[in-house]
Amino acid sequence: MENLVIVDLGSNSVRMAINEIRDDGSFHEVRRIKEDSRISEGMGSNKVLQPIAMERTIAALKRFKHIYNNYPKRTVRGIATAAVRVAKNQAEFLKRVQDEVGIELDVLSGNDEAYYDYLGVMNSLEIKDCLILDTGGASCELIHVQNGKPRNLISVPFGAVSLSERFHLNNVVRADRLFAAQNFVNKQFRDIWWIMDALQLPIILLGGANRTLARMNRQHQGMARVDNIHGYRLKTEVVNKTFRALLSRNLANRKKMPGLETPRADIIIGGILPLVMLLQMLDADRVIFSESGVREGIISEYVHHR
């Protein structure tokens, strides 16, 4: 038996999952922690990680280290995604993490991130044909699955944080800014040559903004286990109704909405916008939420090779 520690540095949050890997190849999650470090904050068009954001993130990584150091027979795998992937000062940040925390972060390519999403979803949901959408802080991964296999996959360079900052979707959303954001996302999706192959397929959702969408609706429906979203389904009209409700409120009032975490209230509109545009484009009638994504995909690969 050993413990596999996965430290996942996303654009909006940093997460740690500790999994007990048994000798027979089965695994069980024993600890999961998240901190909203928002490494991508203020990167802008210059694509430079900002000092304050780096400090926040490194501090979170140090707190994680104090926890996983208590687990014996551990293997630590650190990964970073979109924000670090595109950062011009990536090397500086990676060296600081190595020197100050002792973690060597593996910067995943967009295709690698999408493939691990695919592995995580297909090992946990019984579905053969779908489109997977993972909306992160600075990128979206899309995977067209046909007969259980990844037919096409891509990572596109926008997400909840970057869209919210670029089009000023954080507080009161003006009509002209929303229109500009919709046009931008629509054009990016239309440029994916295979996207219409996923017409009318169910959309499997990953990522913090999408998890928030699920929690908000589960709380609205009075469900007892609000965070138990794996396999949860919503009809398209419910997604659109939730999006309209978010648009009708300013930041202060969004923070009061049940199921919406306060630190995510300023980026939730930018986070759900890619989904809303995809639903219109592909005429999908429902979405399905998955709790399994990149981290679970990495675990599956690790166990397989082990």
From TrEMBL:
Protein name listed in UniProt: Ppx/GppA family phosphatase
Pfam families (alphabetical): Ppx-GppA
Domain named Ppx/GppA phosphatase N-terminal: residues: 23-304
Species per Swiss-Prot/TrEMBL record: Pediococcus inopinatus
Family per similarity comment: Belongs to the GppA/Ppx family.
Superkingdom of the source species: Bacteria
SUPFAM superfamilies referenced in this protein's UniProt entry, alphabetically: Actin-like ATPase domain
